[in-house]
Design brief:
single chain; 234 residues; 4-stranded antiparallel β-sheet; 6 helices; 38% helix; globular; disordered N terminus
């Protein structure tokens, strides 16, 4: 996967504002000061961790041996609770679009959708990869889109809010879990904010804008609203 363009400070603040405001999907302790966005070969990953708590613990450790011991125990306990054995890979997904069924979009590779929050603040999330899905291939499966947009930069806020409503609806209809919704919301914010840094995206809309399909400037499929009628993932 291509490495995403790093966010500017303004984009980070905007992303955090949306995420922290959406308590239905993202816990309020996701306020953070340090952001790293990356992706690996198994899927698109977004992580956001707090640097302030580690700074405070470092300060405590210098004050006295007893406070250092206490800080170490606290850190150990925190890492233990936040580093639970979350499965980040899975099997049973097609290798690429050519090996997938044609009834809907299928996640490819071995990336499992997950969302993990940290007690110190911040989170890590992963959404699927869609290897081999071009715009033409998507249209051959889902039909012609009801709407096509190429100006996400000027519509990013409205798009984020619209997709948030779509994710809420899918949770309420018990089609996806809250944790899965949080992971996909993180992906939406990632793309929407990147669009403000001169990255161009194409959005296909289906089902009265309840389904969004996002392609990169190079035509790479990046995101699909996780409605099980349109997307298969794990």
């Amino acid at each position: 996967m291509k490495k995403r363009t790093p966010f500017s400070l303004f984009a980070l603040v905007a992303a955090l504002f949306l995420l922290s405001a959406c308590r239905f999907l993202v816990p309020s302790n996701s306020e953070s000061t340090t952001r790293s966005s990356n992706s690996d070969k198994s899927g698109k990953k977004v992580s956001l961790k707090d640097s302030s708590s580690s700074s405070k613990q470092s300060s405590k450790s210098k004050s006295s041996s007893s406070s250092s011991s206490s800080s170490s125990r606290s850190s150990s306990k925190e890492n233990s609770s936040s580093s639970k054995d979350i499965e980040k890979t899975t099997d049973g997904l097609p290798e690429d679009a050519d090996h997938a069924k044609k009834d809907k979009i299928y996640a490819t590779g071995d990336a499992k959708v997950y969302y993990q929050s940290y007690e110190s603040g911040g989170f890590e999330a992963q959404i699927p990869e869609f290897k081999g899905y071009t715009q033409e291939k998507v249209k051959s499966i889902l039909g012609e889109p009801e709407k096509i947009s190429t100006d996400l930069a000027s519509e990013y806020e409205a798009f984020q809010n619209k997709e948030l409503e779509n994710l809420k609806r899918l949770v309420q209809e018990q089609k996806i879990s809250t944790e899965q919704a949080r992971a996909f919301l993180a992906g939406v914010v990632d793309i929407a904010q990147a669009s403000r840094l001169q990255n161009t995206y194409t959005i296909y809309s289906y089902k009265n804008e309840q389904i969004s399909i996002i392609f990169s400037q190079e035509g790479e499929l990046l995101y699909v609203t996780p409605d099980p009628d349109y997307l298969y993932f794990k």
